[in-house]
Design a protein that fits this description.
Elements: E1 2-4, H1 5-11, H2 19-28, E2 32-38, E3 45-57, E4 63-70, E5 85-90, E6 100-104, E7 109-110, E8 114-115, E9 119-121, E10 124-126, E11 129-130, H3 148-151, H4 161-165, E12 170-175, H5 186-197, H6 204-214, E13 218-219, E14 222-225, E15 236-245, H7 255-263, H8 271-283, E16 287-291, E17 299-303, E18 309-311, E19 317-319, E20 325-329, E21 332-336, E22 340-341, E23 354-361, H9 363-373, H10 378-383, H11 392-407, E24 410-419, E25 426-430, H12 433-438, H13 444-453, E26 457-461, E27 464-468, H14 479-490, H15 510-524, E28 528-529, E29 535-536, H16 538-543, H17 551-554, E30 568-569, H18 574-586, E31 592-599, H19 624-633, E32 639-646, E33 648-650, E34 659-660, H20 663-676, E35 682-685, E36 691-701, E37 704-712, H21 714-719, E38 726-732, H22 733-739, E39 755-764, H23 769-780, E40 784-793, E41 802-811, H24 820-838, E42 841-842
Parallel strand pairs: 13-24, 14-17, 28-31
Antiparallel strand pairs: 1-12, 2-12, 3-4, 3-6, 4-5, 6-11, 7-8, 9-10, 15-23, 15-24, 16-23, 17-20, 18-19, 20-21, 21-22, 25-27, 26-27, 29-30, 31-32, 32-38, 33-34, 35-36, 36-37, 37-38, 39-41, 39-42, 40-41
Length: 845
C-alpha cells in the first residue's frame, strides 16, 4: 500500500513529515517498510506564459512553433538564473498565446534522467521545453503540452510546477499482511499512525455517514438474491446505490487528485473512474460507477447460472461459474461482483448520469472468483480481506460529493439503501492470558487502553475482559488476536529478549540423534543427500517390490495425482534415486553418489483407501474421533535410507587409476551407516528384484533382514540409460535404529603386540563366504581380534564345485604377549568349527 504523505496528513497530524519518520512510526506498529515514492522530475520547472507563437513549416513536412515564453515576472531572474523571457521550440499545437504552460528550463531533469539544456534545433536555439503529461510522468497523454487552462488551474508566472501540479508530495509504501485488510486505505493507515505516535486521528467516515443518513434517497429497485447453498453464507451483506445527474465527464480530474492517485500507484482514467478509485484508497471500500442510461431496470445480486458469460472491462469474455457472485440488471449479468465491472454499462465521455454502487461482499466468494478467473483487481484485493461493513454508506456519500464538486453534477433523490444490522464479534479474554502468551506482565490499564485504542469496546468481567471488536477489524476473532494487538500497541520493543531455560531431559530423541549421525556419515563419505517426490508409476512400483507384492492390494493409489503417469505412492526409495541419477546424467554429470532418507508407503490388509468416508469440514478442527479415524486409515510409513552410486568413485590422476563404483561401495556404505550407530551388519548373498542376481547381498542385524545392497540389474540400468554399473542399497532405518545397541561401548586399546596369520579354507562354491567367516570366528574365540576375507579362488588347483577362501587373521591377548602356539591353536579351533558348521576343510600348501 502506497500512502501519499499530504493525504495521510489530512486525517492525522504528522508529527514528523519526513519519509523515514513516517516509515519508522508504521514499522513500530507492525507494518514492514517496502519503499518510498516521489515524482521523478526536478530542477527549474515553472509556470510559463506564452507571449508569442509563430508556426514554421520545415522541409521534413513538420510544422513547429517558435515561441516566446515568459518564465518569471517581468524584470526578474528566472529559476535557472537566466532571463525572464525565453525562446522555445515546441512541436505541439494545443495551446494559444496567453496560455500558461509547464516550462522546463535548462538544468531540469525529467523521468528517465532526461536532462534539459539549451540546444539548437529547427534553426533556433530552444532555451527550454514545454512539457507534456507523459514527459513529466503524469500520464500517457503526449498529444499536447500541459496547459493550466485545460486543467482548470491558474498560478502566477514563475511558480514552481510542483506547487501547481501537487507533485511535490511523496509517499511511503508498506507491506500489508492478509489479516490487516483495513490498512489498504488512508483511513486505516492514519489510524495506525495515530496508535504509533499518539497524534490525533480524525475518522472521515463519521461525518460522511452522518450526512448520508440525513439524506433522503429511495426508489431505485435493487434485488438481493444472494443465497449460496454450496457454502451456506450470503454473498452480499450490504448494498447502497446513489445517483448523480448532470455530470460533465469532459471536465478534467483535479490535478491534486491525479498526483495522489499516481503516487498511490493508480493510473488516471476518467473523472468518474478516478473519483471511485480515490474514494476506495481513502476509505477502503471499493466502489463501482455505472452509466445510469445503460442500466436496464434495477440492479440485483445473485449467483451466476451455468452457461452465462460476461465481457469485463478489460474486454475479455468470461465464462461464469455457478459460485460466482454477479451484478445483474434486466438484461442479464453486467458485472463480476467485487472484482470487475462489465463492458456494457461502463461510463464514457458521453455519460451524464452516474450510478454509484457501494457494497459489502463475502470475502470467500470474492477470493474464489479472483482465483477462478485469474482476475486480480484493487477492489478484489480489499473485498477478499474483508472491508468495514459500516463504511459503504460513507464511501458512497464521498463519491457523490466529489462528483457534484468536480463533475458539475447534482445528487439525485433516487437510490437504495439495503443493509443488514452489523453483529460485532465478542471475545472473552482472561486477565492473565497476555502474560502467559507474551511473557510480559501487562497491567489492566495498559490492556484496556491498547484495546480501546484500536477501536474495541472493553468491559471488565470476572477473571478478565469482554471485548467487542470494531467493525473494521474482521481479523479479531479469538483471544490470541487480542493479545497480539496488546503486544503491538504497547510496543514489540517492550518484550524482553530472553532465552527460555530448557527443562532437563529435553533435546533430540535417540532416533533423531541416530538419523543425524547417519546423515553426517553419508556427507563425510561423499554422498549428496536429495529429497525426491514420493510419486511413482506402476512400472517403477514393481521394479523393486517383493516377488509376492500385489500393487492392487499393497500400494496406495492417489485419488487426485499430480501426474497421471505416477499415481502411486512409493514402496521403495530407489526409483526416485534412479530418476535423479538419470536427470544428472542428461545434464552431463555422470559421476554421482546420492542418498535419501525418507518414508515409503505400504498399505496393510489391502487398505488402500486412505481417509474418512466424508471429508471433514475445513472451517473447524476435526473431532478426536475423526482424527483417530484418519490416523487409523493411514498406511504403514517406515523410514528408509537408500543410496545410489554410479560412474567414477576415483578419478584418473597422478599415480592413480580410475575406479568405478561397484557392489563393494554399496556394501561399505551400508556398513558405515550401521557402524555410526554402533552396530555391525551381517551379510549374506541373496537375490532381490531389480538387483544383479550374482552381486546382491541381504543385510542382517540381530538375525533380522533389514536391507539389501549390491549392483542393480543390467536391464534396470539400461532402461534408465545410465552408462555405468550402478551400486545401490536400501535399508529400513527405523528397524536399524531399534536394533542398534542402546549404548555403544568403546573398546579399550591394547598395549600388547598382535600375532597375524592366514588361513585358507576349501568349501562348496555355493556356501557364502560370510557364513564361513562367521563360523570360523565363533570357533577361534576371544583371542581372535579380526578376520578379513582377502581372496576367493576358483581354478585348476581347486576341485570343481569348490572354492578356496583365504582369510587374514589377527590375534591378541589383552593381558600378555601372545605366543605363536596360542594363536595357532585358536586358528585350528576356528577351522574345526567351520568344518563342523559349513563343511570347510583346511587347504594344505
Amino acid at each position: 500500500m502506497r500512502i501519499p504523505l499530504s493525504w495521510l496528513n489530512e486525517h492525522v497530524e504528522l508529527k514528523d513529515p519526513s519519509l523515514d519518520a513516517v516509515h519508522a512510526a508504521l514499522v513500530s506498529v507492525g507494518f514492514e517498510e517496502e519503499d518510498t515514492h516521489s515524482f521523478d522530475f526536478s530542477g527549474p520547472i515553472v509556470v510559463g506564459e506564452v507571449l508569442e507563437r509563430t508556426p514554421e513549416e520545415h522541409s521534413n513536412g513538420k510544422t513547429i512553433n517558435w515561441c516566446q515564453v515568459r518564465v518569471a515576472p517581468a524584470g526578474e531572474t528566472a529559476a535557472d538564473g537566466g532571463a525572464d523571457v525565453r525562446g522555445i521550440v515546441c512541436g505541439a499545437h494545443n495551446f494559444e498565446v496567453g496560455d500558461k504552460v509547464i516550462t522546463t528550463l535548462p538544468g531540469a531533469v525529467l523521468p528517465g534522467n532526461f536532462q534539459i539544456a539549451a540546444r539548437k534545433t529547427y534553426g533556433h536555439v530552444s532555451d527550454g521545453m514545454l512539457a507534456s503529461a507523459r514527459e513529466l510522468g503524469l500520464g500517457e497523454d503526449h498529444d499536447g503540452i500541459i496547459t493550466l487552462r485545460r486543467l482548470g488551474l491558474d498560478a502566477p508566472v514563475g511558480t514552481p510546477a510542483h506547487d501547481v501540479l501537487g507533485t511535490g508530495d511523496s509517499a511511503v509504501e508498506i507491506n500489508v499482511t492478509p489479516d490487516r485488510g483495513y490498512a489498504f486505505s488512508i483511513r486505516g493507515v492514519a489510524r495506525e499512525y495515530s496508535h504509533a505516535t499518539g497524534a490525533k486521528f480524525t475518522d472521515p467516515a463519521i461525518e460522511l455517514t452522518a450526512r448520508s443518513k440525513q439524506s433522503e434517497f429511495s426508489g431505485f429497485p435493487v434485488k438481493l438474491d444472494d443465497q449460496a447453498p454450496i457454502r451456506g453464507r450470503a454473498g452480499v451483506q450490504g448494498f447502497i446505490v446513489r445517483k448523480v445527474t448532470g455530470v460533465d465527464q469532459s471536465r478534467p480530474t483535479p490535478q491534486w487528485m491525479v498526483a495522489r492517485l499516481l503516487l498511490a500507484g493508480q493510473r488516471p482514467l476518467s473523472l468518474a473512474a478516478d473519483i471511485s478509485n480515490y474514494v476506495m484508497l481513502e476509505l477502503g471500500n471499493p466502489l463501482h460507477a455505472y452509466d445510469a442510461a445503460k442500466v436496464q431496470g434495477g440492479l440485483g445480486v445473485r449467483r451466476a447460472t451455468a452457461g452465462e458469460t460476461l465481457v469485463t472491462l478489460d474486454g475479455t469474455t468470461r465464462k461464469l461459474d455457478a459460485e460466482d457472485l454477479v451484478i445483474v440488471d434486466d438484461s442479464g449479468v453486467i458485472g463480476l461482483a467485487g472484482v470487475m465491472g462489465g463492458e456494457s454499462t461502463k461510463t464514457t465521455a458521453e455519460t451524464t448520469e452516474v450510478l454509484i454502487e457501494a457494497a459489502t461482499f463475502d470475502p470467500v466468494s470474492i477470493a474464489r472468483s479472483v482465483r477462478r478467473h485469474k482476475l486480480p483487481s484493487e477492489a478484489a484485493k480489499r473485498f477478499e480481506r474483508s472491508v468495514d461493513p459500516l463504511v459503504a454508506e460513507a464511501a458512497a456519500q464521498r463519491m457523490v460529493d466529489l462528483l457534484v464538486e468536480y463533475g458539475g453534477g447534482s445528487a439525485s433523490a433516487e437510490g437504495a439503501r439495503l443493509t443488514a444490522a452489523h453483529e460485532p464479534v465478542t471475545i472473552e479474554l482472561a486477565a492473565d492470558a497476555p502474560q502467559k502468551l507474551v511473557g510480559v506482565d501487562y497491567s489492566a490499564d495498559s490492556i484496556t487502553t491498547a484495546l480501546e485504542m484500536i477501536g474495541c469496546e472493553v468491559a471488565a468481567v470476572d477473571g478478565g475482559y469482554r471485548v467487542t471488536a470494531p467493525s473494521w477489524r474482521a481479523d479479531l476473532t479469538r483471544p490470541a488476536d487480542l493479545i497480539e494487538e496488546i503486544a503491538r500497541i504497547n510496543g514489540y520493543d517492550q518484550i524482553p529478549s530472553q532465552l527460555p531455560v530448557a527443562p532437563p531431559g529435553r533435546g533430540l530423541t535417540r532416533a533423531q540423534q541416530l538419523r543425524r549421525r547417519a546423515a553426517n556419515f553419508a556427507a563425510a563419505a561423499g554422498l549428496t543427500e536429495v529429497i525426491i517426490a514420493p510419486f511413482v508409476s506402476q512400472a517403477q512400483l514393481e521394479t523393486f517390490a517383493a516377488e509376492d507384492f500385489n500393487y492392487k492390494v499393497n500400494a496406495v493409489r492417489l485419488t487426485n495425482p499430480l501426474d497421471g503417469q505416477a499415481p502411486y505412492l512409493r514402496v521403495s526409495l530407489l526409483p526416485g534415486l534412479i530418476t535423479a541419477a538419470q536427470r544428472n546424467h542428461s545434464r552431463g554429470l555422470v559421476d554421482v553418489a546420492l542418498i535419501e532418507f525418507g518414508s515409503i508407503f505400504v498399505a496393510e490388509n489391502g487398505n488402500t483407501k486412505i481417509g474418512t468416508k466424508t471429508v471433514p469440514p475445513m472451517a473447524q478442527l476435526p473431532s478426536p474421533e475423526v482424527i483417530a479415524e484418519l490416523n487409523a486409515s493411514l498406511p504403514d510409513q517406515p523410514r528408509m535410507v537408500a543410496a545410489l552410486m554410479t560412474g567414477a568413485a576415483q578419478q584418473t590422476g597422478a599415480a592413480q587409476t580410475q575406479r568405478t563404483y561397484d557392489w563393494a561401495d554399496a556394501l561399505e556404505t551400508a556398513r558405515g551407516i550401521a557402524w555410526s550407530f554402533g552396530a555391525q551388519l551381517d551379510v549374506r548373498q541373496a537375490s532381490r528384484p531389480g538387483f544383479h542376481p550374482g552381486r546382491t547381498a541381504e543385510l542382517l542385524l540381530a538375525g533380522e533382514v533389514i536391507g539389501v545392497a549390491g549392483e542393480l540389474h543390467p536391464e534396470v540400468v539400461a532402461a534408465a540409460h545410465l552408462p555405468f554399473a550402478v551400486a545401490a542399497l536400501e535399508m529400513n532405518l527405523d528397524r536399524l535404529i531399534e536394533l542398534a545397541p542402546q549404548v555403544t561401548q568403546a573398546q579399550q586399546l591394547s598395549t600388547m603386540p598382535a600375532a597375524t596369520q592366514d588361513v585358507t579354507l576349501l568349501v562348496a562354491a555355493d556356501i557364502p563366504a560370510a557364513a564361513v567367516q562367521t563360523a570360523f570366528a565363533a570357533g577361534a574365540g576371544d583371542l581372535l581380534e579380526s578376520v578379513r576375507l582377502v581372496d576367493d579362488y576358483r581354478g585348476d588347483s581347486v576341485s570343481e564345485g569348490e572354492k578356496a577362501l583365504t582369510f587374514k587373521l589377527r590375534f591378541r591377548a589383552a593381558d600378555r604377549t601372545l605366543k605363536a602356539e596360542e594363536a595357532s591353536e585358536a586358528k585350528l579351533q576356528g577351522v574345526a568349527r567351520a568344518a563342523e558348521t559349513v563343511g570347510a576343510r583346511l587347504r594344505e600348501v
